[in-house]
Amino acid sequence: MSDEEHHFESKADAGASKTYPQQAGTIRKNGYIVIKNRPCKVVEVSTSKTGKHGHAKCHFVGIDIFTAKKLEDIVPSSHNCDVPHVNRTDYQLIDISEDGFVSLLTDNGNTKDDLRLPTDDNLLSQIKDGFAEGKDLVVSVMSAMGEEQICALKDIGPKN
């Protein structure tokens, strides 16, 4: 063994899978699951008894984390389901362009300009109103399976 030190920057997107397997019987309410190739937050789980063919079934009801659509799936509890890697990152809002894109400040001082304003009207008006008033705003961006969307807003006070 060599006594050199190796430093690896862990970024989960370098060829890493967008999902990981988890046994259906272990997925709980408020967890995440992939239903019809969409990342969903589990809002309801019910398990049926084993039938004559020997598998208990899990019935999942999930809400798509990006479109808020309700999706359902039934999976044998002993089978594996895909669970999305869901990340939340906070960015400071710098600017809003006329075409609906936002400019965000990342931790390392770069800007991130590839995100649109959220489609949720309540959140959208909070962001636009707060920005118009000159407040310092921090947006939470949820990312899963190659998609990103602004999901929350924090007001950190007026600009100096």
Automatic annotation (TrEMBL):
Residues 1-12 have a biased composition (Basic and acidic residues). Belongs to the eIF-5A family. One of its GO terms (biological process) is positive regulation of translational elongation. InterPro entries: IF5A-like (IPR001884), IF5A-like_N (IPR048670), IF5A_C (IPR020189), NA-bd_OB-fold (IPR012340), Rib_uL2_dom2 (IPR014722), Trans_elong_IF5A_hypusine_site (IPR019769), Translation_prot_SH3-like_sf (IPR008991). Residues 1-21 are annotated as: Disordered. Residues 85-154 form the Translation initiation factor 5A C-terminal domain. This is Eukaryotic translation initiation factor 5A. SMART domains: eIF-5a (SM01376). Translation factor that promotes translation elongation and termination, particularly upon ribosome stalling at specific amino acid sequence contexts. Binds between the exit (E) and peptidyl (P) site of the ribosome and promotes rescue of stalled ribosome: specifically required for efficient translation of polyproline-containing peptides as well as other motifs that stall the ribosome. Acts as ribosome quality control (RQC) cofactor by joining the RQC complex to facilitate peptidyl transfer during CAT tailing step. The keyword Ubl conjugation does not apply. eIF-5A seems to be the only eukaryotic protein to have a hypusine residue which is a post-translational modification of a lysine by the addition of a butylamino group. GO terms for molecular function: ribosome binding; RNA binding; translation elongation factor activity; translation initiation factor activity. NCBIfam families: eIF_5A. Pfam families: eIF-5a, IF5A-like_N. It comes from the Eukaryota. Keywords: Hypusine, Initiation factor, Protein biosynthesis.
